[in-house]
Amino acid sequence: MFGELNLLLIGFMHIQILVAAAPQIPCYFIFGDSMVDSGNNNNLNTAAKANYRPYGIDFPQGVTGRFTNGRTAADIIGQYLGFSNFIPPFATATDQEISTGVNYGSGSAGIREETGSHLGDRISFDRQLLNHKTTISRLSTLQNNITFTNEYLHKCIYLSNIGSNDYINNYLIPKIYTTSLMYNDEQYAAILVQQYSQQLKTLYDLGARKMAVFGLGQIGCTPAEIARFGTNGKPCVEWIDDMVKLFNDKLKTLVEDLNQYYSDARFTFINIRSISAPQGDLPIPSVPCCPIGQDAQCVVNSSPCLIRALSVFYDGFHPTETANIVIATRSYISLSPKDASPYDISHLARL
Ligand SMILES: *[C@@H]1O[C@H](CO)[C@@H](O)[C@H](O)[C@H]1NC(C)=O
Questions:
Q1: Does any ligand 1 atom lie closer than 6 A to the CB of residue 95?
Q2: Per-residue pLDDT for the chain (351 aa), expressed as one digit of tens each?
Q3: How open is the CA angle 143-141-350, to the nearest 5 degrees?
Q4: Looking at the 3D structure of the chain, how many domains does it have?
Q5: 147 CB under 6 A from ligand 1?
Q6: 186 touches ligand 1 (CB under 6 Å)
Q7: CA distances from 118 to 47, 111, 183 (A)
Q8: Atom of ligand 1 at shortest range from CA of 145
């Protein structure tokens, strides 16, 4: 597996050079959870924050609040798109910065409002959409021409990576959340995708025309869920992966439907499950790189593993930068038609 991962990465290097050209779109907005959070939770009252070492150990600016050792997949996609700076988090974005986009991601946030509440404050997807409204008013004031701002917003790429916490920090904790009493797996996937559909329509109403919607990874293969539920001798918690697959399948169908419904917009589904599928028969090595605590996050000031390029997981839930490079590269230029459908992000940018 390690050898194959290395081979994969070497294969990706030429793509990086290929796309290092000029910025292709004027702006890039990022929505989601800790997979993309770049510091929005730092000043919130929550346990879900990562603004301490050893997070950020391989990031140019060090500790920022990113839940990984280096760049997130959203960061790397931004570089592929040609942005020379990382898209600023909403929490600190200045007027000078917002014209290239804003990152609204918030650790522990979900599609559902209550998701993650036992960890403290977080910016749910609905609140991220409200924050985006605020950004648009700021942008309109700065650009001082409504027609121009509307046309500008149409050209941006909007990335959305959310839903994992609606399982991890909601449905899978029946002692705190009632969703698993109210819905079976199939119904829950359906109501989540239904709510997500409304939220993506709101994003459309706010001017989004190029949207990359990320499916969920194999939550049942994360070190934290394996430790919590056990695997019965299998590599992963299979019943969790089956549950999440119901969501992914419905989300893919939603993306197809939205492309039909909005003829002037382009949506694409990024299939993390296909992208992170092990090459060959060996399972993903579900071992965190840093020592983790009860909350599955890295222990404060602990020493992470030395060769981080060989780890898939940095803590109990989050991928290392190495894994994020694979995710970003294959969503930008798909290696298999399953990775991104109907478009990979490089194609979405050119449409
Ligand atoms: C506003 O922007 C539109 C679209 O770019 C442009 O055609 C128009 O001339 C601009 N109006 C003014 C007053 O600058």
A1: no
A2: 333 344 344 444 444 435 555 678 999 999 999 999 999 999 999 999 999 999 999 999 999 999 999 999 999 999 999 999 999 999 999 999 999 999 999 999 999 999 999 999 999 999 999 999 999 999 999 999 999 999 999 999 999 999 999 999 999 999 999 999 999 999 999 999 999 999 999 999 999 999 999 999 999 999 999 999 999 999 999 999 999 999 999 999 999 999 999 999 999 999 998 898 776 666 678 899 999 999 999 999 999 999 999 999 999 999 999 999 999 999 999 999 999 999 999 999 999
A3: 40
A4: 1
A5: yes
A6: no
A7: 9, 16, 20
A8: 1
Q: What is the residue with the minimal CA distance to atom 3 of ligand 1?
A: 148
Distance CA 319, CA 211 (A): 23
Q: Kindly state if the Cβ of 145 falls inside 6 Å of ligand 1.
A: yes
Residue 223: helix, strand or coil by DSSP? Answer: helix
Look at residues 90, 78, 85, 86 and name the one whose alpha carbon lies nearest to residue 42.
90
* Residue 153's CATH number: 3.40.50.1110
Distance 259 CA to ligand 1 centre (A): 29
Q: Alpha-carbon distance 132 to 138, whole Å?
A: 10
Name the pTM for this structure. Answer: 0.94
Q: In terms of residue numbers, what domain contains 183? A: 2-350
- The protein residue whose alpha carbon is closest to atom 13 in ligand 1 is 145
Catalytic residue set: 34, 315, 318
